[in-house]
Amino acid sequence: MESVRKKRRAPLPPPLRQSISKEAARAQNEHSVLGGKSAGARIGLLRNVGCRLGALRHCALSSVQRFERASRRVRPFSDAHDPMKLRKACLLLVGSVGALLLIGGSIILGILPNFVRNGVLEAISLSNGSKAEKGWIDPPYEMSMQVWFFNITNPDEVMLYQAKPSLVEMGPYGFDERQHKVAVTYYDNGTIGYQNFKWFQFNASKSCDHCRLSDVVNVPNVPFWSLLHKLRRSGSMPKLKKFISYGLLGVGEGAFITKSVDALLFTGYNDIIFAMAKMFHWLSPDTKVPDRMGFMYGKNWTLDGAYLMNSGQANYLERGRLELYKGRSSVDAWVDVWSNMINGSDGTVYPPFLERTSRLPLFSPDLCRSLYMDYLKDVRSGELNAYRFTVPAEVFDDKRAENAGFCWPTDVYYPEIQKVEYSTGLACLPSGLLNVSKCQMDAPIVLSSPHFLYASDVVQNSVFGLRPNVEEHTTRIDIEPVSSVGLEFQRKLQINVGMVQDGDFSTLKRMRSVIMPVLWLNESAYLNAEARRDIWQRLFLPRLVAKIVGSALITTGVISILLAIGLFFFYRRIQEKQETI
């Protein structure tokens, strides 16, 4: 067995094999002729044949070597090719693809804010015929109103013995509510004119178990106290007031009245004082006298407004801002220009892209004033995230400078709850109470939060039976911050009557002056499921998909680049080890 294995050569090309075969045959013929030749001639002939065969062999080997070298040059992926170069090419390809993915993902996430912004502005555009306009005209909300009455259980003790009023809360009495915008008009300056139609219907399923509209309640007699309020403001003579008091006693009018819930709310009831006021209307022609008495009388199947609202088409920050209410940019209910201004929206339309530091201004026709709501906390409303905004306590704080204009001075003095300004002899109502008599046909109506929430302890303790609770008695709105679509509203308000002791009325001599709660209401709205799905699909689904795709591209790109860099140094280290060996 040979100790060294011979290197195996590649086979000769066919043309060379044919040449060698011909030369071998020729040599054989010449060999057969050598038989008769001399020894010298035979040796010369053999040398000649050997030289020719050697030349052919050398030529053949040279051709084979050149063929092998050429073959190695034209086969880059053969075993003879440098593997490090191939690896470098692959790593360069992986790194380049990773860089492209990284750039693509960054571009997607970079343009996402503008994409979201433009999509939101298009989705909420209050242009004529838009989908947002349809939802604004016919709000897709499940709306209702619940009313609680305060039934006074000790009226005689209050009138005769200066007893503190004892109240029992009755309710809730639930009503379905519908709203619809009518007389919608678009103007070239980007404003929209409209009126709001409201409709209420009693719903026993939204009421307490035994609550019926026929339930009777003992409450302050508003026409009676309105008449006394006008007499006091007009400076009527004591003798005239006594004469009127006896006349009222003769027709059965007193400080309290017992009526059904239905009569006290929407249906109303006939009152002798209103009838007498109409008879003598010529004495005060500017005084408006309603046909019937009812706290919600004239507010069912009726129009509210007219409003003129900024559509926000030119500047989305002005979206929903009221320009005029009933043709005016201010009311005439307070003592200074700033307090009378109409600021903010109607409470249903706001600019998009809210922050937690945003403040939501609004105008309330019921309060005859503008107010605002501040951010309270993040909440989850159904499947959507929301910011909760509420009316803060400082809105009703009479010690704040911005509220000075809402303190309407009056000579009516409630000893237990008021502080007199001795320089003028006048007094304003304390914090938490709002005197709206000037925009309520001069009736002594005082508005507050339910159960005197945010009022002082002295006010809350002026009657028995109140239990103020921030969570239950605060006006609030849960609003989706990107689109500023309200997801849930709760507007809560309490109606009170100012009952003032008067020595000229025999029946009012012994009572104490008090702000008497009558009823409180919660007007609520909840965005329906279909509208919530539409918000998700139109505003959040595209943003979610873009975020996922962009993040996935960036992640894949970074991983690819890191992988390419890591493998490059790994293979380089292997190559360095091989070269040292």
Give an overview in words.
It is a single chain. The chain is α+β, with helices and mostly antiparallel strands and 581 residues long. 37% of the residues lie in helices and 24% in strands. The chain folds into two domains: 106 residues; 387 residues, no CATH class. Strand 9 and strand 10 form a beta hairpin. Helix 1 runs antiparallel to helix 2 and helix 3 runs antiparallel to helix 13. The two termini are 32 Å apart. The N terminus is likely disordered. Keywords: Glycoprotein, Membrane, Transmembrane, Transmembrane helix. This is CD36 family protein.
List the helices and strands and how they pair.
Elements: H1 14-33, H2 39-74, H3 83-123, H4 131-137, E1 141-152, H5 155-161, E2 167-186, E3 191-202, E4 216-220, H6 222-234, H7 238-250, E5 256-260, H8 261-264, H9 272-279, E6 302-310, E7 322-325, H10 337-340, E8 359-364, E9 369-381, E10 384-390, E11 420-421, E12 426-427, E13 433-435, E14 445-448, H11 457-460, H12 470-473, E15 476-480, E16 485-499, E17 514-527, H13 529-580
Helix pairs in contact: 1-2, 3-13
Protein name: CD36 family protein
Pfam families: CD36
GO molecular function: scavenger receptor activity
Terminus-to-terminus distance: 32 Å
Averaging pLDDT over every residue, what do you get?
84
* Gyration radius, rounded: 48 Å
Question: What ranges have pLDDT less than 50 throughout 5 or more consecutive residues?
Answer: 1-7, 74-80
Instruction: Tell me the helix content.
Output: 25-40%
Tally of separate helices: 13
Order of helices and strands: HHHHEHEEEHHEHHEEHEEEEEEEHHEEEH
Report the strand count. Answer: 17
Beta-strand residue percentage:
15-25%
Sheet with the most strands, sense and barrel status: 13 strands, antiparallel
> What oligomeric assembly is this protein in?
single chain
